[in-house]
Design goal:
The chain is mostly helical and 87 residues long. The chain contains 5 helices and 2 strands; from the N terminus they run ααβαααβ. It has a two-stranded antiparallel ribbon.
């Protein structure tokens, strides 16, 4: 899948009513904005693009080890947080 496809795939699935990709749903995770509201399409799509850009620079993932709330840099820049799904 190219970055353009990921842009729309993540944008549509994360901003949808389930707030997660199928893989995230299988792991009982969801994505929300840092204030707890639903993620708009643009934030979800940008988060996916930033993730794939950060895979080209693996040391960027060390940010999550140093941050207080253990968020990755692409999540911080997109303004989202990945949490366990509320039942």
């Amino acid at each position: 899948m190219c970055i353009r496809d990921r842009f729309f795939y993540n944008g549509l699935t994360i901003s949808g009513y389930r707030m997660a990709t199928p893989g995230m749903r299988a792991m009982d995770l969801e994505v929300r904005l840092t204030d707890g509201t639903r993620v708009p399409f643009l934030n979800a799509a940008v988060q996916a693009v930033l993730f794939y850009v950060s895979t080209m620079f693996p040391p960027v993932f060390l940010v999550s080890l140093l941050s207080a709330n253990k968020r990755c840099l692409h999540d911080m820049l997109a303004g989202v947080i990945v949490t366990r799904r509320f039942m």
